[in-house]
Amino acid sequence: MSVGIVLVSHSAKLAEGLAELAAQMAPDVTIVPAGGLADGSIGTDYDEVVAATQRADHGDGVVLLYDLGSAQMTAELAVESLADPSAAIVADGPLVEGAIAAAVAAQAGQDRKAVAEAAATAGIPEDLAPAEATGDGAELELELRNEVGLHARPAGLLVRTLSAFDADVTVRLGEQEADGHSVLGLMSLGARQGDRILVRARGPQAAAALEKVKELVDGNFGE
Amino acid sequence: MACTADGVAAAVRAAAAVVAEHRVELIDLDRAIGDGDHGENLNRGFAAVVAALDSAVPDTPGGVLKLVATTLISKVGGAAGPLYGTAFLRASAKLGAGATLDVPALVDALRAGLEGVQARGKAVGGDATMVDALIPAVSAAEKAAADGGDAVAVLTAAADAADAGAESTVDLVPRKGRASYLGERAVGHLDPGARSSALLLRAFAEAAR
C-alpha cells in the first residue's frame, strides 16, 4: 500500500476539487478531502480531520496538507490525538502544488517522510540550471505528439514511470531544464504538442530509463 | 480555599455566559480585521461545553478542563478552537487527577495554558494575538501568587493585566492569523482573540469571588 493523503481546507469544495485533481496523477493513493464544517459552512472540522486521517491510513501512515493557519492547527491537533502520532505528518507546503507532489510521491511508493518532503518543497522553484556536460550519461531527443504535451497527467505518468529506474533523468526544452522526477518541474517547462524535448539520463539504468521514456512519448502517454 | 470540580464547572459556565453576552462585540471586532466568525464560533463552543456539563460534571478540576478542551476543539472551528482547546488541554494535563485546585496549581495551569497557545499558534508577544493578553496575565497571576494572594486576587490580577494587554493590540501590526494579511491596515483595531481571552479571565475572576 501507499502513504495516504489528507487535504485539510476551510472549504469542502476546495478540498474535494483538489483531491480529484491529485487523484488523476495518483490513482492508487487514498486521498481524503477534509474541508469545511459539518453544516457545509467554511471552517475546519477537527472531528472530520481525525476521521479522514484514520481513513487514509492503510498501514504506511498519512501526510496531511492544509490551506490557512487554523487548518494547520487543526491538522496538528488531529495528529497529536492519534494512538500513534508518528504515523502522520503535517506537511508544511503550498496546498495545491504540495498535494500534487505528495500524491505522486505516494504513488511511487515513497515513505511518509519523503511524501511530506515532496509536499514541503513543492513551492520552491525548480532548479533550471543549465545541464552539466554529459559524460557518462545518455541522451535522446523526442518530439511530443500527444495533444496536451507535458501537461499534468503525462508529467505525472512520466515521473511515476521513472521512479522505477535507478537513473537521474532530466528533460530539457530549449534553454530550460527540469528534473525528470518532479511533476511540477516538468510542467513548468511548458512543453507542448510538436515541441522537441531532450531527455538525459545518468546512472546504472540510464539506458533502460530512456527507452521507457521513448516508449511513453511514442505512445502519446496513452492518450 | 481550594476549588472543587463543581467550582471549576461553575466558573466555566460563567465564562460561557460572558461569551454569549459579548458574542456580537467579538463578531464585530473580528469582522473588522478577520473573517468575522470569532464571536459565533466561540459562543457555539461554549454553549456545547455547557450542554456537556449539564449531562455530567467530571470528578476533578482537571477533568472539567479536559471536557472544555475537547468540546472546544470539536465545536469551535477556526483558529480559536485549536488554540483555546490546546490551552485548556495543557492546563488540564498540568492539574492531573487532583481533586481540588489551589493557588499554586491554578498558576501552573495558567502558565501551561499560555505555553500551549504559543506552541500551537507560534505567536510571540507583539504579534497582536491572544498571546498579548495572556503573557501579561500569567506574569501578573504569578506575581499575585508570590505576594500571597488568594485565587480571587490571582485571577483578578490576571484579568486586569489581560485587559491592558488586549488594549495594547490596538497599536500593533498583526503578524499571525487572518489579520496578518491586512498588515498596517489592521492597526487601530483590537484583536478579537486578545479580547476574548481577557473576557474569559475576567469571568473566571468574578466566578471565584
Could you explain how this protein is built, in words?
The complex is a heterodimer of chains A (223) and B (209). Chain A is 40% helix and 19% strand. By secondary structure, chain A is of the alpha/beta class. Chain A has a four-stranded parallel beta sheet, with helices on both faces. A four-stranded antiparallel beta sheet of chain A has the order 5-8-6-7, covered by helices on one side. Chain A is elongated, with a radius of gyration of 18 Å. Mean pLDDT of chain A is 89; it is low at 128-135. Chain B is built from nine helices and no strands. Chain B has helices spanning 5-21, 23-33, 38-55, 61-75, 80-95, 103-121, 131-146, 151-168, 192-208. The longest helix of chain B is centred in the middle third of the chain and has 19 residues, at 103-121. The mean pLDDT of chain B is 95. Chain A binds chain B through residues 37, 42-47, 68-70, 73-74, 76-77, and chain B through 35, 37, 41, 73-74, 77-79, 81-83, 85-86, 120-121, 176-178.
Report the uncertain regions of chain B. Answer: none
Helix coverage percent of residues of chain A?
Answer: 40-55%
- Helix count of chain B equals 9
What is the strand content of chain B? under 5%
Query: Oligomeric state of the chains?
Result: heterodimer
Order of helices and strands of chain B: HHHHHHHHH
Strand order of the largest sheet of chain A: 2-1-3-4
Mean pLDDT across every amino acid position of chain A: 89
Shape of chain A: elongated
Report the order of strands and helices of chain A: EHEHEHEHHEHEEHEH
